[in-house]
Amino acid sequence: MGIKEIDVWLDVGREGRCFTYGDGKGFGIDVGDIVLVTLKGRPMHGLVVKVKDPILSSENCKSRFTLTNVEGLIQKAAVDHIWREWIESIAAKCHVSPYKMLKAALPPGWLGQVKKRTIDQKSFWWIFLNDSNTSSRKLSFRQEELRKFLLKEGGGTWQKKLLLSGFSSAFLKNCLKNSLVDREKRLEFQKKEKASLGVVEPSSNDKSRCCLTNEQRDALQIFEKQPPGSALLLWGITGSGKTEVYLQMVAKELSKGRHCLILTPEIGLIPQLVDRFVRRFGEKVLEYHSGCLERQRISTWRQILATKEPLVVVGTRSSIFLPLLPLGLIVLDEEHDSSYKQESPMPCYHARELALDRAKKTGARVVLGSATPSMVTWSNLAPEGAIALARLTRRIADKPLPDVVVVDMRQELSDGHRRLLSRPLLDKLSVLKESKEQAVILVPRRGYSSFLSCRSCGDVVQCPNCDVSLTVHQFSKGYQWLRCHWCDYRTNIGFRCIQCGSNAFKPFGAGTQRVLEHLEAELEGLRLLRFDRDTTRGRDGHRRLLAQFAAGEADVLIGTQMLAKGMDLPKVTLAVVLAADGLLHRPDFFAEEQALQLFMQLAGRAGRGERPGKVLVQTYSPSHPVIVHLIDGSYEDFLKKESKLRRSSGLLPYSRACLLRLSGYSASLTATSATAVAEYIRPECNSEGWMLLGPSPALVERVAGKSRWQILLHGPALSPLPLPLGGGIWGCLAKGVSLSIDPDPIQF
């Protein structure tokens, strides 16, 4: 009997390679399966890309060559052909091979070298009602009990649950024989993780379902009118009820048997969003993001492949690749957020662009939600663009937006108040506990201080691996140490300056730790919590801290930018921007847009409950345009002014850009490779009307011991990137130098 030949793509080398194996063990392998094979004695998971009909018997085959057999079938039909076609089209736009794109899309651990522990699939009997035989026939008392039990479970449940509930195996066999019920083998997926998060069962008493505002109803009507493959911008001020609109949209899609995908930019926003959706839809809700364990992500992927019921998945940008078919709705909450952009490693993509592309191919609809939409989305609104618009201009129950108070730190300094915390801020914080209110304070960076400097010679302690200063951190007992936020290098604080020998070290700047220390010293008895990457590590770090704060265990929550994004904290009446200038004056093309978005999002955390809110901004630049627009709340006016400036200058989004990043341990080889790449692509750029800038060192020239160079391409809007076809560009690289291609970058 002939043996099928199986071509398997394995993750070896820069782009991977295909190897041929035999299906001598009769697994019935097909294209799209993930299989276990060995390569030079190493167990590896690979993707089946081609199955050849048997042309030789096993005896004849031995006389010519011997094929190594596939060792196991890891996942049947992991890659659907329609989904794979979409992935391949995205790969071309991202300038990576289809297989590299597939590896990035699939959950980690499925492709590549096998780790010690693998995930085994377990299937069990699922018992469900036979609808054609239960309505008309007369049932015994026990059969009626079974019918009611299954109806209560949604029409079906696991056989083992029925046995534990008192239904005997003999009784169930008899019901199967009489066609009262049917059964099938299904994969069982663990719910321990979800149970441990403290989420509740779906509620039928959710008042918000029937108490929609007129604007929310109008938004839903506009959405219903959108054709398949279209996009809608849900532009709603903070606290206007965008999440409830999402829930209503999801309910309608689920009723039609279509899956829904809810994307959020940060893992920190997942807990509240998941809990809200679980209260409405129960076990139909899954989560998928890098905070989940590898086995959890693989389990979620398998559940999606195996399910026959529509699901709701809440996740971050990588969730856009989940094989949800049929897909009815993709929601990008806080669509303006830069975290939706994958910059490194390749493939470089923006989840918003992938969502729009996937919707066009599958007939799903996209909803982009934000209180401060990005310039890219705003410039594509109808009639100039293809994105429809629905507005939510009022908060729920007509609650007022918080007033903005600007503290001029120059005046504080001239009055002799040289402290980090201004007098108006201290006054407002001092009454929080008595009034039983809460505050959130935005600090631009985590850690204790921005950097450590010698007061004698001015030398700043640098990371030995990167061209950045080390950040001062402090343990709760007062012990201080240094850490690099780029490569994670850590070291103790030395006793003497390595340049002049002085021991006059002083931390400069303020991170979340130092702000907390100042508050403890200035306002005794105020209960404080930090909310940054250092304090929210672990599976439930974000949920734990937010639950503590929501329960009233702290008066003030001090955090970095993640604090401003989408969290609903009803007791918060004061939102504070501690050092606005660090965000206003960044050397970044998008600095003003992103600063205003962040400040307005933070302002939206205040006054969401019964009491009105206030926003306090400390700055040395009170007349800066961003501060002016924050005070009057005119985000759309800012967009109009910024749009005119960018359009007249031919800047994004009225043009395109592409950033080529090169890195290597050898500075000279990296620079030489950058020059070679630039000369290789220059003719194509010239012929297509693109401008080539560089090569030049990156803003931070060295990270983790690697030298970094970049080449910026700038050209007409909507035009394809002027990169020659084929792999010639990679041939320009010296050994040890890597290249990444970032279409439409948001950081230069």
Low-confidence residue ranges? 190-205
Helix-and-strand structural type: alpha/beta
Distance between the termini: 60 Å
Instruction: Report the total helices.
Output: 24
Portion of residues within helices? 25-40%
Features:
alpha/beta; 748 residues; 7-stranded parallel beta sheet; 6-stranded antiparallel beta sheet; 25% strand; 33 strands; single chain
Topology, pairings included?
Elements: E1 5-10, E2 17-22, E3 34-39, E4 42-52, H1 58-64, E5 72-75, H2 81-94, H3 98-105, E6 112-113, E7 123-129, H4 131-134, H5 141-152, E8 156-158, H6 159-164, H7 169-177, E9 181-187, H8 192-195, H9 214-224, E10 231-236, H10 242-255, E11 259-263, H11 270-281, E12 285-288, H12 294-306, E13 312-315, E14 327-333, E15 341-342, E16 349-350, H13 351-362, E17 365-370, H14 375-379, E18 387-392, E19 403-408, H15 409-414, H16 423-430, H17 432-435, E20 438-442, E21 451-454, E22 471-474, E23 480-483, E24 490-492, E25 505-508, H18 512-522, E26 528-531, H19 541-550, E27 556-559, E28 572-577, H20 581-584, H21 591-603, E29 614-619, H22 625-632, H23 635-649, E30 655-664, H24 667-688, E31 691-703, E32 706-716, E33 737-743
Parallel strand pairs: 10-17, 10-18, 11-13, 11-14, 12-13, 14-17, 19-29, 20-27, 20-28, 26-27, 28-29
Antiparallel strand pairs: 1-2, 1-4, 3-4, 3-5, 4-6, 7-8, 7-9, 15-16, 21-25, 22-23, 23-24, 30-32, 30-33, 31-32
